[in-house]
Amino acid sequence: MPLLDESANGVYVIAATPFSDEGALDLESADRMVDFYRERGADGLTLLGIMGEAPKLTAEESVAFVRRVIARVNARLPIIVGVSSPGLASLKALAASAMDDGAAGVLVAAPSTLRTDDHIFSYFESVAETLGAIPFALQDYPLASGVQIAPKVILRIAEALPTCVMLKHEDWPGLAKISALRAASDKGARRLSILTGNGGLFLPEELQRGADGAMTGFAYPEMMVGVVKAHRAGDRDKAQDIFDAYLPLARYEQQQGIGLAVRKYVLAKRGAIASSALRKPGVKLSPVDIAEVERLVARQERRLREIG
Known about the structure:
alpha/beta
């Protein structure tokens, strides 16, 4: 599998991490989940993201999960592995293991301790030095990290660190940041791939601003795939129609606290994973929550039939 580079585009689904009802890592469901994402048109997968419950895994479980998914993919999709860690030693160890198993690159978020532009640049300079030749995506997620990374800092990192090949952009929505980065690359600055997060809630606008696709999770990844394909074909109305059909459930899934439980409930309902369980600590959906999800799914199915 080729290494991740600046040409990456399409939909890289942030994969859930499946657990049994008792909380054990469910590697058989990992196989089912890979097949599910592939069948729905994913261009790549990202493992051990924030919504993949990565902090709840032991180091050994992280390695086992990544290895199982890469084996199931069998070089048919590029795999990016989240390796963010408070310490660079553990970051390096997981990155090296993932690359040895066949990953295309890694994903690194800014730690919450960073305060200034120079601190941010110095941190990613250290990351690049630690990773060596391993290509990485810079995760810009200020809602989670509290770290604001200005376009000028991203451009500085891109210019100085050639192994930084992608921006995972989820600055809620940060549309002006995408525009600023693309305007700079139009004037000669190094162009990074930009894949966006935000649960897909701003995907049509992000694509119009110059994003190359999405790197996020949703229980219906075919929504993101369909929007990106329609946008590439120049049919913005179709892209918007597809997006609009799924928007109520996508919005519901973005609730703080229960959002991941909603996603895993629907993934289990669709047969992608055996259990909807989150590893503790994690919430469970109430009967009222479930009834609301079922109503949204039913309405979504009717709307999709209407638009064909």
